[in-house]
Amino acid sequence: MKNLLNSLESFLVDRHNLSLKKGLVSILVLISLYVSINLFFSYREFKVIEDLNRKMEIQYLSGSISFFAYSMNIFPWTVFWGTGFLIIFLVYEISFGFFISTLITTTKIPLTQIASAHIFSFRKFILCLFPLLFYRELFKESDSYFVQITYTVLCLGTFFYGIYKYGNEFIEILKEHCSESSKRSFVHWSLPILVLSFYFYTILK
């Protein structure tokens, strides 16, 4: 699976050529492919989805949930909301990253280069979302406790591996194209995520 993901990533775009246009095209292709596969798998369980949508509609009409919560929990909008959050997160990373670059980098990095670095490296995370769709298909027929634990561990492991690949790729790109040190590159990548995590922690605690 790892070799397949690396081959697909190399086919889309060479990260050594940081063209913003090519980066945008490649990540849009990946996101579109992810959404298409997600919709395909989900529509195979249309009866189950229809029942869930009906339950959510009843809750919305009764006033138990807001329209925002309703739209986030009905198919197919739940898929589009999830994709939208990924795009919003990427824009946030680019914007915050550019702000950080004015504070900690030895030389000012142009916004286009910051955007390219994040887009090219974020593709690694997007690629790691594809196995999650197949895990869901593989384990959906079983109610075994052991199988569900295995499914959860696989999903979490793949998710955090995607985060690691995103961070590692971003650090390598800044080192190679912006002559930044590993420490500065790590701070540049991790600080926006830490700030966002702390924000959600304060809301949810």
Task: Describe the protein in words.
The protein has 205 residues and is an all-alpha fold. Helices cover 82% and strands 0% of the residues. The chain has 9 helices and no strands. It has helices at residues 2-12, 20-43, 46-61, 67-72, 77-104, 111-127, 130-139, 145-178, 182-204. The longest helix is centred in the last third of the chain and has 34 residues, at 145-178. The chain is globular, with a radius of gyration of 19 Å. The two termini are 37 Å apart. 22% of the residues are buried.
Sum this structure up briefly.
Helix content is 82%, strand content 0%. It has helices at 2-12, 20-43, 46-61, 67-72, 77-104, 111-127, 130-139, 145-178, 182-204.
Total count of helical runs of at least 4 residues: 9
Distance between the termini: 37 Å
**Strand element count:** 0
Strand content: under 5%
Coarse morphology: globular
- Taking pLDDT < 50 over at least 5 consecutive residues as the criterion, the unreliable ranges are none
Radius of gyration: 19 Å
Helix content: over 70%
